[in-house]
Amino acid sequence: MSKKKQVTFADIAEYTNFSKTTISRYFNHPDSLTLENQEKISQALDTLGYKKNKLAKVLANGKSEFIGIIVPNLYLHYYSEMLTQFLSSYRDYHYKFLVFVSEHGAEEEQQYIEELLSYQIEGLIVLSHTLPSEKLASYQIPVIAIEREAEYISSVNTDNYMGALQATSLLIRDKCDILIHINVNVNKSIPAYDRIRAFQATCEEYHIPYDICRFLIESIGIVLAIPVSVFISSIIMKLPSLKRSDKK
Q1: Angle at Cα 73 formed by Cα 79 and Cα 231, nearest 5°?
Q2: Best CA proximity match to 199, nearest among 180, 215, 221
Q3: pLDDT tens-digit series, residues 85-140
């Protein structure tokens, strides 16, 4: 089966008796043509079976309509949900997304960004914490960071302090005797550090015993026989009462 020949501007010009310049104006500046001529060209496209050549458009105007995305993983619901929301924006804004999962350090992430730049991306969305914002800014493209250090680039963050304050207040209202915040080793320059600040400040304001852990709960050194609430970064859960025993 022979491959169907792709319809070119020359084919359209010959069919309509317009110049190739006129055909080009139809695609790039249609308002410069009369409605009658626009309709003639539109009908010719349907008759000839013309299909848009996105690559040619990119070469002509330098706009790829590609946005790069770097995420640290997809097994955490937060990142997979964020990616779903980005992809769903296509129907409104018509940008396409090239996605890389960066799990193995700065060198790998830089390779991914170089690959994205080779596709002439028009912007980059970064959810990972691997590269400093100063390095990201050096790529000379619009970069948006989400919930990460962003001194040299633009960023979108939630109100981490207020969220943690409300969550901690909820646990206190539920009469929990001890509150535990479990988190990774968050740098103070990262917006999520405000969750720790709000947790600590709220516990101290209400004189509630608390602990901030980087590991598992048992690292506290004691198993408690009183209601305990655990604040795992953005997750809240209440543990059942356990038999009290000192850890040896």
Answers
A1: 60
A2: 180
A3: 999 999 899 899 999 999 888 999 999 999 999 989 999 999 999 999 999 999 99
